[in-house]
Each structure stands twice: as structure tokens, then as C-alpha cells.
Amino acid sequence: QGDRDWWRHGIFYQVYPRSFQDTNGDGVGDIRGIIERLPYLTRLGVDAVWLSPIFPSPMADFGYDISDYTGIDPLFGTMEDFDELVAAAHEAGLRLILDLVPNHTSDQHPWFIEAKSSRDNPRRNWYIWRDPAADGGPPNNWRSEFGGSAWTFDEASGQYYYHAFLAQQPDLNWRNREVREAIYDVMRFWLGKGVDGFRVDVIWHLIKDAEFRDNPPNPHYREGRPPHETILTQYSTDQPEVHAVISEMRRVTEEFDNRVLIGEIYLPLNRLVAYYGNDLRGAQMPFNFALLSTLWSAHSVEAIIADYERALPPGAWPNWVLGNHDRPRVASRVGPAQAGVAAMLLLTLRGTPTLYYGDEIGLRQLTIAPDQVRDPFEKNVPDIGVGRDGCRTPMQWSADRNAGFSTATPWLPLAHDFVSENVASLEADQASILNFYKAMIALRRKLPQLVSGSYEPVAAQGDILLYRRRGTDGLVVIALNFGAEPAATTSSAIGFNCEILLSTFMDRQGEKLEGMLELRSNEGVILGPY
Ligand code: TEU
Ligand code: CA
């Protein structure tokens, strides 16, 4: 546990607890289920597990609306179960990361119930209350991400409260010192239990404009995008004062040894990197989501890597994400045939990779019938097209009933292909995407230059993205064919005597190259000198 750099060298894996493994037959995943599946995670070869929220919650936003920061929701188990999970994870050599949701609470949190009770309640100022505008309407034009105004009127006290998400998720007032200290104590509570760090939900939202100015219209708004995107979030997010808050959070994590602070931030790369903080005193891993929204081509991805590498402050450690519980599954975004190329990219770029559960078995976005939609975002804004349920479907463990996820009907439907697409059958299939992930992760462990080597771009050739990773242990070359056609390159990058260390199809290991590399459609390879 004494390794200060574990989060730089390690691979993170996000578990969406509702959908990982049910053990008590209620159709919802739980903590005991995660304990049962730890051996799977060590077999896969990841180093840290991040859990989406497991705290008491009315579940209006499936746990991102917390009513008790230091408890465990009975749906997921007990505090004893949690303590056992921490011990079992550490025993297995895995770190455990929790989701911290400090921007807002549930409207059922005792803090909000008190704040709402009267204008002069001592907790009133823990939330964001404003008088109505002159016409009685909301105080400004800020929009909720989940539809409608971001302000809800409280009849009893005659004021509006602010919520960047659902009305059941009132925003805390982070300009209030008492709020900060209360959340820092929550952090200490979990860190004291041995938790290895936090992924901080919407960290870039914590501070809002002191004057609550109207947000300007979005000149790039496109038809068909969610309505809240018609205006920018210039005054409601990413305020300069947020960085002082984040460095305070960082300091709290440093009251304990070797912990990590991860920030969830959706911003362009040049703004994102500010979240490393002055002198790198901010988040160690401001999540880099650039691959979630890029066009899937060698040239676009090459440009993103270059932008990011250029924007990173000196000494800042990069990170990359391919999927999460809010965005369409990677196998659907890039197409199932490209899933191996995407995985090879994620696991060979410079920086810490975060995997999303199920991506390693090629899970696709599932289309959910309208009457089965559970996601409040999609319910409120039905026209957004792709909702979030489709990337949160149960993990597919086996061909058994309900894919081995549960003895009961799962809370979200399973994909019909689970009979063949499941952990048990993919583990038995030598060339499966799952075994490719394992081989790739094992190779990453064997070759330190894949973890800590420099990144050296080689100009992309057509559909082939090429780069080198160079360390004191030598050089490797990565070549990824983003196209559905075979492609070849004679780039000087592969001019030396090299052999294939791994192909996404896992059938060319040891093949020697003579200055020319031919790739099949949708193939990626890692090359090393021989
Ligand atoms: O998501 C923040 C975020 O930016 C989302 O609004 C995202 O844009 C949206 O889900 C559409 O894809 C975090 C959590 O990851 C998300 O699950 C929560 O619903 C949200 O915060 C509120 O806590
Ligand atoms: Ca359960």
C-alpha cells in the first residue's frame, strides 16, 4: 500500500453497483455482489475499482441524490458489507474509490428539509435561495440539465432554490464555509475507513457566479440537442473560485496516505487542464472525456491526443476514459468491430485508463422500450434520443437465467445476446474481446514503456493511427486501423527490425516485419524490436 504512484501506474474500473451482481434476489446489484466478483476483476488485471454512489438515497437520480452521506443504502447492503468490501478489495490488491457527490444533496436530506423549513433557519444558507424576478418568475435564465428552469419555487417561503439537475437535487452553497467543512468531514469518514480516493461528481459546478448573471445563448446549439444546451453555462459552472475549493479537498485527502482525487468535468481540453490546479494542487485526475465525443477516425483521435499532450501543464499526469454510466457504450459509438482498436488505444495511450464495466465484454447500448425507461433525464427530456439506461444494463456473467446477474427480473432489461455474449463463454473463447483485454492489460504490465514511456506521434497514414511509446526499457510502436478496409504502411516508424507483440485479433504474435506493416480491417497491433 506504500506506493505513492499507484494511481499513475494503475488501471481503473468503474462499477455501476445497481447493475453488477445481485445476491439477494431483488433484481438490483449490491455490495455482496461486488465482493463475489472481485476475483473476476483481479483476473482481468485492473488495479482500482470506482463505485457509483451506494449511499442512502430516494433514487430520483439512482444515488446521485444523497440523503445521508455517511451511510449505506439498504438496497446495496449494510455498513458491515461495505467494511468487508474494503478489506476484501485490499486483500486482493485492489484499491477502492467512492463517488463523492458534493454539488447537491437529495431534497430529502435533513440539511435541505431544515433549510426549507424557514427563511431564518440556520441551514437556510447551506443551499442557494433567491427571490423571484420582478415578474414573479425564476431569478435568472439558468436551465436544469434534466429539463426546464434550474429554479424551483418554494411556496411556503416565497423563494426559489437552485438545482443544476433535478428539483429533487438542490445545489449546496459552496460559498458557505460550514458546507465545505461538513463535506470535508464526510471525506474524512470514508478515507478513515480505508477508501483510496474519490471520483467527485460535477466538481466544475461547485461554485456559481456570485451575481447570478444570465447565461448567454449558445451560438453552436444544434437542432435535436437537449434544450438546456440552448444557453451556455458560462456563469453557472467553471468559476475561477472553484479551484480554491478543489485544493482544499486535495488537502483533506492528503491527511491520509496515498489517496487520489478524480474530478468529473465536461470541458474542452484547454479548460479542463486548469483542474490540475496551481502547482498541481488540484485534482490528480481531471477526467479526460475527449474520446467520448470524438468522431472515430485516425485523424480526429490523433488531433485530440496532440491537443491534450500540448495542453497538459508540466508534470501533470494524463488520463483517458472510453465510457461511463452517462454516455452511450463505446462498442455502439465506434461500432462493435472497432471495440478492440478502441481498447488498444485506451490501454496504450500515455496516462491512466478508466474502464467502464461491461465494455470489456463488448456490451452495446441497449435500446430501452419507452415504457421501461428508468432514467430521469430521458423521462424529462424524451427527445434526446439516446438516454442513459441503455449503458447501465446488467453485467452479463453467464448463459444462465438473467445472465447470472440475478435470480429475479433485473431492474433494467438484459440484451438478448447475453446467451453468447457473457463472461463465461468469452473467457472460454481464445480470441474474444474479453481475452484481448486481458492480454493487453498483461502486456501493459510487462512493458513499462507502455505505462511511463513518452508519447511520440507519427503522422497518421490514412486510416492508420501510429505512435511510439519510448522509455528507458526501449520502444514500442502502436498501429491502429480505424477503417473497415485492410490498410498498409511503410512508415519509417516501423523501419527497424520489429515483430508483432499483440494484435487485437490475437493471432499474429511473433510475426516479423520487413519494413512494411499490413493491417486487416479493424485491426490494431503493438510492435517491438526483436
Ligand atoms: O453527471 C454530470 C453530467 O455532466 C451529466 O449531466 C451528463 O451530462 C448527463 O448525464 C448526460 O449525459 C453526473 C453523474 O455522472 C450523473 O449520473 C448524474 O446524473 C449527474 O452528475 C448529477 O449528479
Ligand atoms: Ca440486490
From TrEMBL:
Pfam families: Alpha-amylase (PF00128)
SMART domains according to UniProt: Aamy (SM00642)
Matches recorded under SUPFAM superfamilies: (Trans)glycosidases
Cleaved signal peptide residues: none
Domain Glycosyl hydrolase family 13 catalytic residue range list: 14-392
Family the entry assigns: Belongs to the glycosyl hydrolase 13 family.
Protein name in the entry: DUF3459 domain-containing protein
